[in-house]
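Hey, resending since the last one bounced:
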Amino acid sequence: MTDPIKITSLEAENVKRVRAVQLHPSATGLTIIGGNNNQGKTSLLDTIAWALGGDRFRPSMATREGSTIPPHIKVTLSNGLIVERRGKNSDLKVIDPSGSKAGQQLLNAFIEQLALDLPRFMQASDREKADTLLRIIGVGEQLAALERKEQEQYNERLAIGRIADQKAKYAKEQPYWPDAPDELISASDLIRQQQAILARNGENQSKRAMASLLEQQVSTLTARVDELHRQLQTAEDELIAKTA
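The structure tokens again:
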């Protein structure tokens, strides 16, 4: 980004309300022109616009009221150009650092019309005024880059917040298992645990089958004992009957 061109000195005589003024604006920051009403603030700004903007900005009543001396303006710019206007007809002389003469076309090549169009500036919104001033002092692009970066970070935080809200919502909808372990368990550990459980279930099934078989055998033997006991009782009864 090239450095903005600034006014390093201004001399004006007999322009509107200005009798005579000499001004050396600050090389850094802003130069503020203050004063009460009708003391020449607007006249000084119109002088600058006329000097740099040409006939388009020449005041309708350019010569100071009551003055017999025609207007004279001399502006020195930070790029070395010297701009001088004389008389009510706005005779222009532009001298570049090499001493060569030029005209309004050279000024139009680098002087932004909006910076000189003060009525338009005053009617602009606060944001438009701020953008114009920031561009003039050379920090507009830097602030615009910061605003873009801030907007990108805001959008990123907004997206992260939305994702976090969605995940929190999904987490609340998941079933809760109070007996689940607090520590994570690997899939291989779960497989080993499942295999151990299946092995124990197989052993228990074999034991249950053996127990069922033994119960059947006990039931058969019990029935056999009962039958033998009945037969013994019958034999005893018959023996008693024969001996009687």
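The radius of gyration is 53 Å.

Sorry for the duplicate.
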